[in-house]
Amino acid sequence: MNYDIKEVAERLKATRDSLDISIEEMANKTQTNLEEYTALENGERDFTLSFLHDCTLALGVEMIELLTGKSPTLKKYSLVKDGKGLPIKKATGLREGFAYQHMAHLFSHKKVEPFTVVVPYCGKAECEPIATFAHDGQEMDFIISGKLKIKIGDNVEVMGAGDCIYFDAKIPHGMVAIDGEDCKFLAVLI
């Protein structure tokens, strides 16, 4: 889904306003400074997945509502076939080129946010320091294919297919695909 940043920003602002939450309070709840939050809410910068996740927690809305303006309706179960999740592509910023598919976007009142994530291989990124970010909650990443180098705080781990890591997402973390191929994994934000 190549969402329109301005439309998402408008929905974010309207929801925040309707709940009488100040910009300062939202900046705090999304772990951004006031200037950065204002730029995001004005649609001047693209959103990170972790920022959107923090917004949904602060506003009590589903991520799909911010991205599309539609509410999820399924309550018993949601079946999403391979490759048919709600696609979210990061064209710019910290996670440039990462491709996400939300795997439960139609289910209402989720307790977790499950995504398949494809991290594109970039030889340059493999050799540079890993850029990190943090968000509220916990995260579980299960490698489906490829290899992933993940940094959590001062620790660096290399993971391959079948490996799983669970961590406190408030600890700055970042990841890159290694060994010449893209890495696909299941990420569950809790």
Describe the secondary structure blueprint for this structure.
Elements (H helix, E strand, L loop, with lengths): L4 H14 L4 H7 L4 H8 L7 H11 L3 H6 L17 E4 L9 E4 L10 E7 L3 H5 L10 E8 L1 E6 L2 E5 L4 E5 L4 E6 L4 E7 L1
Antiparallel strand pairs: 1-2, 2-3, 3-9, 4-7, 4-9, 5-6, 5-8
Helix pairs in contact: 2-3
Uncertain residue segments: none
What is the number of strand segments?
A: 9
Share of residues in strands: 25-35%
Gyration radius, in Å: 16 Å
Topology-level CATH name of the largest domain: Jelly Rolls
According to CATH, the homologous superfamily of the largest domain is Jelly Rolls
Per CATH, the class of the largest domain reads Mainly Beta
Helix amount? 25-40%
- Examine the secondary-structure arrangement and name the CATH architecture of the largest domain: Sandwich
Largest sheet data: 6 strands, antiparallel
Give the neighbour order of strands across the main sheet.
Answer: 1-2-3-9-4-7
Distance between the termini: 22 Å
Structural domain count: 2
Structural class category:
alpha+beta
Rounded mean pLDDT score: 90
